[in-house]
Design goal:
With 84 residues, the protein is mostly beta strands. Helices cover 0% and strands 37% of the residues. The strands form three sheets. The chain has a three-stranded antiparallel β-sheet, with no helix packed on it. It has a two-stranded antiparallel ribbon with strand order 1-7.
C-alpha cells in the first residue's frame, strides 16, 4: 500500500510467453524477465494497494518518465503460499 508518493507497477499473468532469465523464487523470492508480454501498468497513489497471487508477475517501484526522483513510502506484506 502506498502511504506517501506515487508508484507505477507493471503486471502480467504468468504464461509460456513470459519466461524468467533469472529465477530465484524459491530462495530469494524474485525472478527477472527479459521481455514480458501483455504487461499492463498500474498507477498507485496514497491509499492504493495491489494484491498479487503466486504465479502473477509484477514489477514494483516504477516511476513515470517525467519524474526522475520521487519520495515513496509504502507498506509491503508477503504471506507464504502455504498459508493461502
Amino acid at each position: 500500500m502506498v502511504v506517501e508518493g506515487e508508484e507505477w507497477q507493471g503486471f502480467a499473468i504468468a504464461s509460456d510467453n513470459n519466461l524468467a532469465v533469472i529465477d530465484e523464487l524459491h530462495t530469494k523470492d524474485y525472478a527477472l524477465f527479459k521481455d514480458v508480454r501483455d504487461e499492463v501498468r498500474i498507477r498507485l497513489r496514497p491509499g492504493d494497494f495491489t494484491v498479487y497471487w503466486p504465479g502473477e508477475l509484477h514489477r514494483p517501484n516504477c516511476f513515470a518518465v517525467e519524474r526522475k526522483e520521487t519520495e515513496l513510502v509504502k507498506i509491503v506484506v508477503k504471506i507464504h503460499r502455504d498459508l493461502l
